[in-house]
Amino acid sequence: MERMKRGEKMNYKQTRMWDVDNWDGKEPSPPEIEEAGLCISRGEAVAFPTETVYGLGADARSDAAVEQIFAAKGRPGDNPLIVHIGERSQWQHLTSSVPDMAEQLADAFWPGPLTLIVPKNNAVSEKVTAGLSTVAVRMPEHPVARALINKAGVPVAAPSANRSGRPSPTKAEHVTYDLDGKIAGIVKGGGAGYGLESTVVDCTGEKAVVLRPGGITREQLTRVLGEENVAESAGLPQEEAPKAPGMKYRHYAPSSPLVLVEGSMHEAVKEAQREGKTVGIMAVDEHHADLQKYADVFIALGSKDELSDIAARLYDNLRLADQSRVDVIFCETFPKKGIGEAVMNRLEKAASAS
Ligand code: TXA
Ligand code: MG
């Protein structure tokens, strides 16, 4: 990785790379994970893979450690972080009480891509919760994430490991691109299988409220809690403070405007070209042959029958689109069912930020 350059600002860090790609998750964990865990326990910020996206982790009990996350990402301080735990028993140390529905959801989906909002206690740094009385907790499934948290021996606050406003990283290279020189290190290990962030569920009210759709689908939540116990949507009027504060921020602002096309892609492209614009198209593989000839850049999203593959590659494809430097990018839409709800949520955010 890059050495410190002359004239570089004092806050430049030499970012280490620990490659554990070859670890199968079964053999005892390699020394690289131990070193990275030690870094976290000493108060440094370290990026690591999870089954959703790469996270940027630091000791959730330490203000100074957590501040490094906000500084490296350029993240607004009023946007709280998710605390990651390695063992279920750890969450007793973070919460004042665990609502029944949270226990039920944890039974069904932990370890996995589900974040539960529960009442917090005083062990959690105020910086993590941005002054809220609740804390977001998740037990990830990825063996590297779990081994790292266990080696660190502390609850690990971790947002996605991207610069604020960029797509979440699904590969170690994305983290390097965004955060090299700003964090202590990156643990490189295997792909992030889901590719989209965890589902965030508020468990502090009478019904479970999905604040952010993700890897665990609404249908899966309903199957466990019953239809009547899952609220239709956050349903907050615009002027009220958003429940998941992160929802109010621009998430991914592509350098070329992204437009979602429900009707005819041909028409949309023709019109833009009539205005003299260069055009990128993001569409499913099945439409490649037909649409490619119209576009300056074509990005194949994956097969229309494999929506989970499309989800897994979506952020990588949005990063590609960002580099294409066309005047406008048109993207197909998907049914908001199953993982499609999360895919469309991220695409709509990207489109509204352009
Ligand atoms: O899959 C994921 O969840 C990844 C990996 C690394 O675990 N993490 C992630 O973190 O996506 P982040 O910080 O990018 O998104 C966390 C979201 C934000 O929208 C934040 O506002 C919300 O969760 N959140 C955190 N704590 C909250 C709380 N106490 N109440 C409501 N929303 C909260
Ligand atoms: Mg994020």
Reported CATH architecture of the largest domain: Alpha-Beta Complex
Count of the domains: 2
CATH superfamily of the largest domain, please? DHBP synthase
Flag low-confidence runs: 1-5, 235-242
Q: Which range does the strand content fall in?
A: 15-25%
| Structural class determined from secondary elements | alpha/beta
Task: Supply Rg.
Answer: 20 Å
For the sheet with most strands, the description reads: 10 strands, mixed
Q: Which small molecules are bound?
A: threonylcarbamoyladenylate, magnesium ion
Sheet with the most strands: spatial strand order? 1-8-2-3-7-4-6-5-9-10
Looking at the structure, what is the overall shape? globular
Could you list some keywords that capture this structure?
354 residues, alpha/beta, DHBP synthase, Rossmann fold, 2 domains, ten-stranded mixed β-sheet, four-stranded parallel β-sheet, 30% helix, 16% strand, globular, disordered N terminus, binds threonylcarbamoyladenylate, binds magnesium ion, nucleotidyltransferase, ATP-binding, EC 2.7.7.87, tRNA processing, Sua5-like_dom
What does this structure look like?
It contains 11 helices and 14 strands. With 354 residues, the chain is of the alpha/beta class. It has 2 domains: 16-231, DHBP synthase; 258-351, Rossmann fold, CATH 3.40.50. The longest helix has 17 residues, at 307-323. The two termini are 33 Å apart. Magnesium ion (MG) binds next to loops. InterPro entries: DHBP_synth_RibB-like_a/b_dom (IPR017945), Sua5-like_dom (IPR006070), Sua5/YwlC_C (IPR038385), Sua5_C (IPR005145), T(6)A37_SUA5 (IPR010923), TC-AMP_synthase_SUA5 (IPR050156).
